[in-house]
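thread: overnight batch results

M.L. [08:02]
morning all. the overnight job finished for the chain we discussed friday. pasting input first so we're all looking at the same thing
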Amino acid sequence: MDVIIIPLLKLISTILSLYGWAVFIMIIMSWLTAFNILNGYNRFVFLVSAFLFKITEPPLRIIRRFIPNIGGIDLSPMALVLAIWLFQEIISQLIFKMMK
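M.L. [08:03]
and the structure it wrote out:
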């Protein structure tokens, strides 16, 4: 049973890590676009930001219901990254306990 569960938990942790990076890149791209460092009309920039928006917006929308904007600052990406870190820590603890 552990032969299947441990690699599956490692895969889930890796997917969560990649998703965390996607959230981080989305945050940076939104700042760079807002300050006109990145051209939002560039086709590549538009495609990357549209992709990141599509994969990160559904959980961010749920979080925004509970955490309102504070002074025009959206804290939902930070809450999502913290939740991802929490889930990764739980998974790593499960893997550690199963390997004993």
